[in-house]
């Protein structure tokens, strides 16, 4: 039996992390028996991030490594039927979504002073009231430092909106107007894009990034289509 360890629900999302939702969608699409459990502190995960998969007493941390493991243990079912060019396109979209737009989503939640109380309630609400402000402020400082190190944190909000807008326009143009990226049913690269976009479209309340994303109708329809096909929605 496989166990996928993810973050608990928050912000109106059943699965608040795009990486966790992507792994859940993939396991589901492969028809593998699995359970989902939750831990609220990612520092307790083997690499300090979620998700991780427990499989035959092995622990695989990172959604991409989970993908590779599942491909290897299902005799290539994850990437079956994809040409090298499609795989290349999929990897490029993954890097755009997970290594760039993802960070803007994080900042739109954690670093917007107006949205910040939602993070405190959603991620730190279980802590005793006396330590909640200190623990949340320390975590926020770390997110700000990481965002600065990534590079995006050096830009004005207006400039960050510009980067986000170009990412969203690229995704909107890259996804199909019907069906899925590379076949009649959604695959790993659809799960990657749709799991991130589900969190951007549906987190409650809307962030400034949600507002920008809603201008991209095709991307929204596609995100809904992938979730409907898998039967797994990010939102509650
Ligand atoms: N490359 C990793 C990224 C996972 C990741 O960033 N997870 C976030 C939740 S969305 C996390 O656990 N963050 C905690 C932290 O960075 O301290 C993957 O694909 O699994």
Task: Describe, in plain words, how this protein is organized in 3D.
This protein is α+β, with helices and mostly antiparallel strands and 236 residues long. It has a single domain (2-230), classed as Glutathione S-transferase Yfyf (Class Pi), Chain A, domain 2 (Up-down Bundle), CATH 1.20.1050. Helices cover 56% and strands 8% of the residues. It contains nine helices and four strands; from the N terminus they run βαβββαααααααα. The protein has helices at 18-29, 63-73, 84-110, 116-124, 132-150, 157-174, 188-202, 208-213, 217-230; strands at 2-6, 34-38, 52-55, 58-61. A four-stranded mixed β-sheet has the order 2-1-3-4, covered by helices on one side. The protein is globular. It binds glutathione.
Specify the biggest β-sheet: 4 strands, mixed
CATH architecture verdict: Up-down Bundle
Task: Count the beta strands.
Answer: 4
User: The CATH topology, please?
Assistant: Glutathione S-transferase Yfyf (Class Pi), Chain A, domain 2
- What is the number of domains? 1
The bound ligands are:
glutathione
Q: How would you classify the helix and strand content by structural class?
A: alpha+beta
Mean pLDDT: 97
Shape: globular
Q: Uncertain runs with pLDDT below 50, 5 residues or more?
A: none
């Amino acid at each position: 039996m496989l166990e996928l360890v993810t973050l608990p629900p928050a912000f109106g999302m059943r699965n608040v992390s795009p990486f966790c939702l992507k792994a859940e969608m993939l396991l589901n699409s492969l028809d593998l028996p699995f359970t989902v459990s939750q831990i609220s502190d990612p520092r307790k995960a083997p690499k300090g991030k979620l998700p991780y998969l427990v499989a035959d007493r092995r622990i695989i941390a990172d959604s991409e490594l989970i993908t590779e493991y599942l491909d290897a243990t299902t005799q290539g079912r994850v990437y079956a039927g994809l040409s090298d060019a499609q795989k290349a396109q999929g990897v490029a979209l993954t890097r755009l979504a997970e290594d760039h737009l993802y960070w803007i989503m994080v900042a739109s939640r954690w670093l917007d002073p107006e949205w910040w109380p939602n993070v405190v309630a959603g991620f730190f609400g279980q802590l005793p009231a006396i330590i909640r402000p200190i623990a949340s402020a320390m975590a926020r400082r770390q997110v700000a430092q990481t965002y600065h190190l990534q590079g995006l944190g050096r830009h004005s909000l207006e400039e960050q909106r510009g980067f986000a807008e170009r990412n969203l326009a690229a995704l909107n143009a890259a996804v199909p107007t019907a069906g899925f990226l590379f076949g009649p049913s959604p695959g790993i690269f659809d799960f990657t894009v749709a799991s991130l976009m589900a969190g951007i479209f549906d987190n409650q309340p809307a962030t400034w990034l949600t507002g920008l994303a809603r201008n991209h109708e095709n991307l929204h329809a596609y995100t809904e289509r992938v979730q409907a096909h898998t039967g797994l929605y990010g939102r509650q």
